[in-house]
Amino acid sequence: MTKKIPMSSERKKKVRVGFCRNKGSSRGQVVSSVVVACNFDDIVKKAANKLKFKKKKNCRLFIQKSTDLAVAGTELPRDKPLGHYLSDGTILSVAINGEDFIHSDGR
To answer: DSSP character for 73?
Structure first.
């Protein structure tokens, strides 16, 4: 008998991601890496702790470097499981004040 894996297991999937700021002099430099569940709220909570900011409501998350699952600049949705966007080693750019993604070449 095979055991069915519930759809909610994707939300429980954990991955190692790195955080960097989207803006400022240290833009694009990985500050810290953590293991997180693949949902927006958990990731923002860990990012706020590592990057030392308090305004979580306006926070936006972007893929900093292209992976096999997503291209650079892809914004992570707040209301969907993120397992289709994240894999181990993904670098996330954190826009603390809700600004748009800034590519590595500044555009």
So the answer is: T
Residues 16, 34 contacting (CB under 8 angstroms): yes
Task: Convert the pLDDT of each residue in 44-92 to its tens digit.
Answer: 999 999 988 887 788 999 999 998 899 999 999 999 889 899 999 999 9
User: What ranges do the domains of the chain cover?
Assistant: 12-95
Look up tokens 């969907």; give the residue: 80
- Structure token digits, residue 88: 């181990």
* Among the listed residues 8, 31, 9, 27, the one whose alpha carbon sits nearest the alpha carbon of residue 18: 31
Domain 12-95 has CATH 3.10.20.90: yes
Nearest CA to 69 out of 15, 107, 29, 30 is that of: 15
Q: Give the β-pairing of 60-63 and 32-37.
A: unpaired
